[in-house]
Amino acid sequence: MTAATRGRRRGSPDTRAAILAAARARFAESGFAGTTIRGVAGDAGVDPALVHHYFGSKDDLFVAALELPVDPRAVLAEQVVGPVEGAGERLLRALIGVWDDPALRPALLAMVRRLIEPGGDALFRGGFLPVVLVPLGAALGVDRPERRMQLVASQVIGVIVLRYVVRADAIVAMDVDTLVATYAPVLDGFLAGPLP
Amino acid sequence: MTAATRGRRRGSPDTRAAILAAARARFAESGFAGTTIRGVAGDAGVDPALVHHYFGSKDDLFVAALELPVDPRAVLAEQVVGPVEGAGERLLRALIGVWDDPALRPALLAMVRRLIEPGGDALFRGGFLPVVLVPLGAALGVDRPERRMQLVASQVIGVIVLRYVVRADAIVAMDVDTLVATYAPVLDGFLAGPLP
């Protein structure tokens, strides 16, 4: 199959791959705020309009560069956004639903490992936080979403590491209801409780 | 300086390194329970008595193989063991004290990254948990220390990742008292609260 028979909309696989590689390098080096579609296009040797055409907005390009099996913004919008009451439970159920799917887990694990490697701080602070987490906090209507979502992340990342990365038996053994009973009060406190 | 002038007690650096390399390989492959001093000694081509002489018990050998700048058991025994009331605060203060020391942090970061890499699950479940964490829970007198210490770890690891690995600004900016006010209630709930 040639590039032409795949249709112009998907673009040449080589061009798409070159844009994604350029985007990953730029986001890692300059963070989300310091990266422009124009700069990525220049690095990839294509017109900026082509980047928009293939990938949409800069947010979309960032999420595409993460190479996740699901768009976390879509999962959160469908399953988590709503009243802040119950948000901890909804977030946990959405998270466990995605992570407990064996088809999705390898790519999710790869992303967590990239976050923790040297350079992963830019990926988190410069991208995942402003593109995915802070908008979720804003959509939940919490005050100080920047701070509260970092507290939420500090518990959620720990649960992910214990349950899916190091597979600690007591955390692996918990069913979804037990996980919710254990962690939703912590998350609700971080989302809506008093901040020290 | 020859090995002889360094004194017999420290041992030949080559022999010590060979024992540590063999220990790391065994612990990673067989976990803590499945590793014996005799097996490590055989892999390193030395007498088991020499392993005991250089490194002490199997617990001590495991901690030595982690190549940490401090022995976590000593820090916990000195600063955290005591009544379960206030244990969350003592644990956080000990943890932050060690991690905020720039001389210690590179080796601690290296250990966290090893935990999260493929194979790190054996290091955690087969070693760090039974050698360091569960004995701490037992020393604090909690019921079901195996389960409660995994809950504690699920919050502590998240704080470490956010503050020291991805350096999320709101978590980095918290002073020790604010971290304690934020996270000690969570840890105290995991240590002494009702379990779902």
Give the structure's gist in a few sentences.
The first copy, chain A, is an all-alpha fold. Chain A contains 12 helices and no strands.
Explain this structure.
Two copies of one chain form a homodimer. Chain A has about 200 residues and is mainly α. Chain A contains twelve helices and no strands. Chain A has two domains: about 5-65, Orthogonal Bundle (Arc Repressor Mutant, subunit A); about 70-190, Orthogonal Bundle (Tetracycline Repressor, domain 2), CATH 1.10.357. Helices cover about 70% and strands about 0% of the residues of chain A. In chain A, helix 2 (about 15-30) crosses helix 3 and helix 9 (about 120-140) packs across helix 10 (about 145-165). Chain A is globular. At the A-B interface, helix 8, helix 9, helix 10, helix 11 and helix 12 of A face helix 8, helix 9, helix 10, helix 11 and helix 12 of B. Chains A, B: Keywords: DNA-binding. Chains A, B: This is AcrR family transcriptional regulator.
Number of distinct beta strands of chain A:
0
Biggest interface between chains: A-B, 41 and 41 residues
Query: What order do the SSEs of chain A take from the amino end to the carboxyl end, as H and E?
Result: HHHHHHHHHHHH
Q: What's the overall average pLDDT of chain A, rounded?
A: 90
- Uncertain stretches of 5 or more adjacent residues of chain A: 1-10
**In this structure, how is the largest beta sheet of chain A organized?**
none
State which percent range the strand residues of chain A make up. under 5%
Rough outline of chain A: globular
CATH T-level fold name of the largest domain in chain A: Tetracycline Repressor, domain 2
> What is the count of structural domains of chain A?
2
